[in-house]
Amino acid sequence: MTTRSKRVAAGRPRYQQDLAQGLERFFEPRQATCPWCGSGRLHQRLRTADCLQRKPGTFALDQCGNCRHVFQNPRLNAAGLEFYYRDCYDGLGEATMTRMASSPIAIRLYRARARALPPPARPRRWLDVGTGHGHFCAVARTIHPDTEFDGLDIGQGVEIAARHGRIARAYRGAFTELSRQLAGHYDVVSMHHYLEHTVAPRQELAAAHTALRPGGHLLVEVPDPQSAAARLFGRWWGPWLQPQHLHFLPLENLCGALTAQGFTVVATDRREPHVPTDLTSAAANVLSRLLPSADVPWLPEKPGLLSRTVRPVSLLAGAPLLAALFGLDLLLAPVARGTRFANAYRVVARRD
């Protein structure tokens, strides 16, 4: 039995105990009004499943007809978030996430994020919120060698990042709860694809305001729910990433919230943050739903011989298609960055 098989078998009793109690307990009551503006003009944008891990459940995203905010409704509660995050970034999913974070596309994005500060900013201390295993900080240090990078996250990855020397200090917990002890410590706070995971984005922006010194900068990068790719690919669009992404903020909404929190928006960018994987991730999501599942602890038992045979053969057969789509994603990236097909945006704001 492989190490992974042992970990799957060890985790199965806990998952089965969780599932035996029903999925309903993982959700808050459905909201009748928009959590961003309070409007009751809601319509369902889409319903989908967990395409990444294939854990059981169906998830809905609603859109506000007033401010265009998109949000998970009903939203996962604390128990639901723990269940669906388990074994994604850590545990069984750690090796996969490490490979993705070390890919050439990821490193290119990390470098672009590190260079996003307006000149002549020379930060002394930088806090990366939602740092995961700290791969961004390790790359950013090559751009800012005189900067001390710290990381904050709710998972154990931040402690792994400190042990590997990618960050100087690891803060494990909720940013909204830790920000007071970090008040005025930082020249830069970055939130790269973090805000969409949070329960209360405005409170996260307030925490960033607290942690920054006056004149310091906040960098925010999030998926763009107004991207034409989101319409084109529907439920299969990779950045929807259900059930982990709870909020999708239109650019003008985020800029307005930053201004209200005491920031000045100094730059916005819909070009550079584009991640050229829309075709590939959509196809991978479809393939994930069609193929038999791998052996995972949220299945009641190990898949049978037929499933264990069909899955690797199908993956091998689908690999050339995914490779071709990935090449097409890269080829089309300059076009997408110049149009509304760009799938993410960045905001740089200064704490006044």
What is the typical, i.e. mean, pLDDT? Answer: 96
End-to-end distance? 58 Å
The portion of residues assigned to helices is 25-40%
Task: Compute the CA-based radius of gyration.
Answer: 20 Å
Number of domains: 1
Largest sheet: 7 strands, mixed
Provide the succession of SSEs.
HEEEHHHEHEHEHEHEHEHEHHE
CATH topology: Rossmann fold
What's the CATH superfamily, by name?
A: Vaccinia Virus protein VP39
> How many distinct helices?
12
- The count of DSSP E runs of length 2 or more, i.e. the number of strands, is 11
Structural class: alpha/beta
Explained architecture:
Keywords: Membrane, Methyltransferase, Transferase, Transmembrane, Transmembrane helix. The chain crosses the membrane at residues 315-336. This is SAM-dependent methyltransferase. This protein has helices at residues 3-20, 78-85, 94-101, 104-114, 135-143, 157-163, 175-178, 201-211, 228-233, 251-260, 278-290, 305-337, and strands at residues 42-49, 58-64, 70-72, 125-129, 148-153, 170-172, 186-192, 212-223, 247-248, 263-269, 344-351. With 352 residues, it is α/β, with parallel strands linked by helices. Helix 8 links the parallel strand 7 (186-192) and strand 8. The chain starts with a helix and ends with a strand. It is 39% helix and 19% strand. The longest helix has 33 residues, at 305-337. It has a seven-stranded mixed β-sheet with strand order 6-5-4-7-8-11-10, sandwiched between helices. A four-stranded antiparallel β-sheet has the order 1-2-3-9, with no helix packed on it. The chain contains twelve helices and eleven strands. It has one domain (1-35, 43-275, 343-352): Vaccinia Virus protein VP39 (Rossmann fold, 3-Layer(aba) Sandwich).
